[in-house]
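Supplementary Note 3. Input sequence used for the single-chain structure prediction.
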Amino acid sequence: MYLLASAYSEGITPGIVVYDFDTQTGEIKYVSEITGIVNPSYLAVSPNERYVYAVNETANGEVSSFAFDKTTGTLKPMNRQFTEGADPCYININRDATRLFTANYSGGNVSVFSLLDDGTIEPLLQNIAFSPESHIHTVVFSPDKQHLLITDLGTDSIYQFSEAHTDTTEHLYRKEQAIYLENGAGPRHLAFHPNGKFLYCINEIAGTITVMDYSTDFCSVRQTVASDTTSGIGGKGSADIHLTPDGKFLYASNRLKADGIAVFSVNQKTGMLTNTGYQETGSHPRNFTLSPNGKFLLCANRDSNNIQIFEIDTQNGLLRNTGKEIRQYRPVCLKWIGK
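The predicted structure, written as discrete structure tokens, is reproduced below.
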């Protein structure tokens, strides 16, 4: 598969690098890169894998589109639009590739754009604003793809929105419910169990994971566990969260004090987590990804300028450092495209 790795760049160093990754052996080869992009800190790939979208995490806030050539493994810039929200840090696309969403951290808002058939981004369609204290971190879709879930680190909330199906764009997406976590949690990223019944939220400030029963009508908290399990009081820098494709194991990255990935086994009946291990990583593991076949975990370490390759033990979920790595300046987001 192709592996796309974006980075905190200043327009001089590579913004997105494309690699060829062997999902059976873990071998990796450089393919191409693109410069001239400022801080493409999060990526999204269109369902047909022909287009790639990136936020430009700056005070002015933009979103960029690229055409991807599978034959050559190269990216070609297409267009950009302003998010009208500072420091966009997450991006997502709906199922039929007609809408694009950015979570704007400092702006405290979500930007909604229309996408054309050629992959280009239309000007801002809807600005979903929240409170002055809000710091929006993630926009993900519910398992049925009909609802948006939005994390607000500033107010310790998770909001659920749905499409209003009106003729006006002002209320194109409307809020249905809010889930309030404990004060000081700082919800950051979300992950659904493959069965769609359990929702996991990693809390950046508290260094915890909240386990919830999920339905579109009501979410209830079932468990809260420590994500940073090594420093005693919590590193207060938890970042990313993912499950294996079979839903048996969950991983959570932690930064700032005890850099590494916490490993959990998942109770398939209740969704509850049991900590089974901790894998040290390079410095500041902001984002990581699992290969689609569930064999490898790749971790982007921003401050040690490398992407580490770990092999997953399918019996217990523990990680083995293969010793293979990619040297890249300030990598922060990893995405897959099939060859």
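The chain has a mean pLDDT of 94. The longest strand covers residues 74-82.
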